[in-house]
Design goal:
single chain; Globin-like; mainly alpha; 2 domains; Multidrug-efflux Transporter Regulator, Chain: A, Domain 2; 258 residues; 10 helices
Length: 258
């Protein structure tokens, strides 16, 4: 099936001027020009446009995109897989920020305690800081010198555990998304027992980060649809998966969290 430039712009969000610019650069040539003098794109060109968009999202310099498109498709797959990991990492970071926000609100309302270091969970520039030296100590003192190797070792152990936890968490949520995609393709409804069982697994995954209220779980469902990074991730599974998940989460919130 062929699509006009206007159709492609509408479905991709890429402006008409950008499409023309890509044509000028030789990155994306139309499939053919119709009798109506309009230009048309087919599936092959649509896929190439998606690849251009992924490259730009992944931060590939514009001057390098053309050569990448001409290379073995495996290179494009590599970039897409790398970008997918970046999006998942950002998704997990956003979950951490939501947890920090919720816990801070609960703390300010006197509902729970909160450790000082917990104030900064989830922030992109959160880093490990060496504790301040006690009065009279110097960085060259034997005590401080003895402490740093231990801190470095602990940091490495924490980093390794964090990486293992991340990979395990990624595998879990990936399986959930794939099962939801299959349910969607089978025509199951978000409120069906089978889909709600999968949504239940999603809720348990979320509880690995924080325990949401019904309102928070609904807000998170909307975030999946409205936030660009989440949306891009779910579109990678299925164009309607974000909405499908949202509907299922809203039902789960009403049934199990209210």
């Amino acid at each position: 099936m062929a699509y006009s430039m206007t159709d492609v712009s509408g479905m991709s969000g890429v402006s008409l001027s950008e499409l023309s610019y890509y044509a000028e650069l030789g990155l994306l040539s139309p499939a053919f020009r119709g009798l109506d003098e309009d230009i048309y794109y087919e599936k092959k060109e649509l896929l190439k446009l998606q690849q251009i968009m992924f490259c730009k999202e992944a931060g590939v310099p514009e001057k390098e995109i053309g050569s990448m498109l001409k290379e073995d498709p495996a290179e494009i797959v590599r970039v897409m897989q790398q970008h997918r990991i970046q999006i998942l990492e950002e998704a997990l970071r956003l979950h951490g920020l939501i947890q920090t926000l919720d816990r801070t609100v609960s703390y300010l309302q006197g509902e729970q305690t909160m450790e000082e270091h917990e104030l900064y969970y989830g922030f992109a520039h959160n880093t490990r800081h060496v504790p301040l030296l006690q009065a009279g100590e110097t960085q060259h003192s034997s005590d401080a010198a003895d402490a740093f190797p231990t801190q470095d070792l602990q940091a490495k152990e924490m980093e390794l555990k964090s990486k293992e936890d991340f990979l395990e968490s990624q595998a879990k949520i990936d399986r959930i998304h794939l099962d939801l995609k299959q349910a969607l393709e089978l025509g199951l409804e978000p409120g069906s027992p089978d889909v709600q069982q999968i949504i239940g697994r999603h809720l348990e995954w979320i509880k690995g980060y924080y325990t949401p209220t019904a309102e928070i779980y609904r807000d998170l469902a909307n975030l999946y649809v409205e936030h660009r990074d989440f949306r891009n991730m779910y579109d990678g599974y299925h164009p309607r998966l974000a909405e499908f998940l949202r509907e299922g989460m809203i039902i789960k919130a009403a049934q199990d969290l209210s």
